[in-house]
Design a protein that fits this description.
With about 120 residues, this protein is mainly alpha-helical. The protein contains 6 helices and no strands. It has 2 domains: about 45 residues; about 70 residues, no CATH class. The protein is rod-shaped.
Length: about 120
């Protein structure tokens, strides 16, 4: 096999590995069961109102207008609001992609490999 063919094979392999490792990532958080959240009677009305405001604020931080954020929060049950408010630090916009250190390292190694060959 010639030198040109080996470079082509190395380049194709580098592109395939890059495509395999840089696909979209999905992050999910565990959702507590209904029994661990509690019933509506057990949750204080003031706490629910505060949690609704927290969730609405998070939605507004993602870019929703106040009216739209209020409408979406109003559709949630008290238990759902409590669950979301308990995990606000892990809530992300759907489709938000983040590049982690492993992906960056792989990309740098592949770029160096292509440059060397």
């Amino acid at each position: 096999m010639g030198k040109g063919n080996s470079r082509l094979i190395a380049l194709v392999l580098a592109v395939l590995v890059t495509m395999a490792l840089t696909g979209p990532m999905a992050w999910a958080a565990p959702v507590p069961s209904q029994s661990s959240v509690g019933t509506a009677e057990q949750v204080d009305a003031k706490a629910v109102a505060a949690e609704r405001e927290l969730v609405k604020g998070k939605l507004m931080n993602f870019g929703l207008a106040e009216k739209d954020a209020s409408g979406r929060v109003d559709l949630l049950t008290d238990q759902e609001v409590h669950s979301l408010a308990s995990h606000l630090d892990t809530v992300q916009i759907a489709g938000a992609a983040s590049v982690n250190a492993d992906t960056t390292t792989v990309l740098l190694v592949l770029v160096l490999l292509v440059l060397i060959l």
